[in-house]
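I had to read the description of the data format several times before I understood it. Each protein is reduced to its one-letter sequence and a matching series of backbone shape codes. The format is easy to grasp once an entry is in front of the reader. For illustration, here is how one protein appears when written out as sequence plus structure tokens:
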Amino acid sequence: EVQLVESGGGLVEAGGSLRLSCAASGFTFDEYAIGWFRQAPGKEREGISCISRSDGTTYYDDSVKARFTISTDNAKNTVYLQMNSLKPEDTAVYYCNLHRHGSEYWGKGTPVTVSS
């Protein structure tokens, strides 16, 4: 069974940093893409960053480009999202998302609150 477990969320002041982690298990770590979505109160879930396991290609939404960095530790089967220069508008629940062989999986999310 595929499992994605996020951690690292919390309360931070504007301008601060957090590092989110997503521990993945239950599948063969071959060809896949893994990344992060977020959902702010009253808004739709949006994709903000992802990385391809096959070639390391990364994607960032314009709203987080130059502030967030996605990375993986293949030995730990974990993907990270380093979030710097956080803004109140980054407040949301952050979800780990995995695409593999035509299937999609989600973690349960970790909340991030950025105070002004």
